[in-house]
Design goal:
The chain is of the alpha+beta class. Helix content is 30%, strand content 36%. It has a 7-stranded antiparallel sheet.
């Protein structure tokens, strides 16, 4: 982990490597993208993203039981470039993800990005999956609140059954996972509106 004086530069390098030159999955997977309006100011949305424990609410408690964040271990205070945190999450009734994430961009109140290295453990004796994903939130102020764009770029996936790596199957899985992840994204927007004391549209 870099010392604080080097963190911003290392963060930019990590982002560039993952998005432009990182090792990719064997198929050219689509980038998952959500976009939505929020009546809360951009600052409020950004504060929730930088307040890592709040992720347990909008990506945990407000998610379905089988696809939710279960635990989070992070330093106190708002996350910034170089902040490292660890999470676990459910994936169905049995499988669990154990993730290590590092914040790679934190530009208040416009951009919050982190890179996640994850391990998925299924049934006992099953081969674990390993993945790398870039999660990026772009926030733009509007006359009545803000607009938020979320993207997830899966740059690595190993250990999964070969059938799941076939282009058609992989895209189908992306559509299924998008349904559940959209719920978490909406949870972020709703919680920001509640924190700001404004009604959702």
């Amino acid at each position: 982990m870099p010392v604080s004086g080097d963190r911003e530069e290392v963060g930019r390098m990590a982002k560039t490597e993952m998005v432009n030159g990182g090792a990719r999955t064997r198929w050219r997977n689509p980038v998952l993208r959500f976009e939505g309006s929020c009546p809360a100011p951009a600052d409020v949305v950004y504060e929730l993203l930088a307040d890592l424990p709040s992720h347990l609410e909008w990506a945990g408690q407000r998610q379905l039981e089988t696809t939710r964040l279960l635990s989070l271990d992070a330093p106190s205070g708002p996350a910034r470039v170089g902040t490292e945190f660890h999470t676990t999450g459910s994936d169905g009734k049995v499988a669990r993800w154990s993730d290590r994430s590092v914040v790679t961009e934190a530009t208040r109140p416009h951009v919050f990005e982190f890179v996640t290295e994850g391990t998925r453990q299924g049934k006992k004796g099953a081969t674990p999956w390993h993945s790398t994903a870039v999660h990026r939130y772009e926030i733009t102020a509007e006359s009545r609140g803000c607009r938020v764009i979320y993207t997830e770029d899966l740059t690595r996936l190993t250990g999964a059954p070969k059938l799941l790596l076939a282009p058609g199957i992989s895209r189908l899985l992306f559509k299924v996972s998008a349904k559940y992840m959209r719920r978490g994204f909406q949870g972020l927007l709703d919680l920001a509106a509640e924190r700001a004391g404004v009604a959702t549209t």
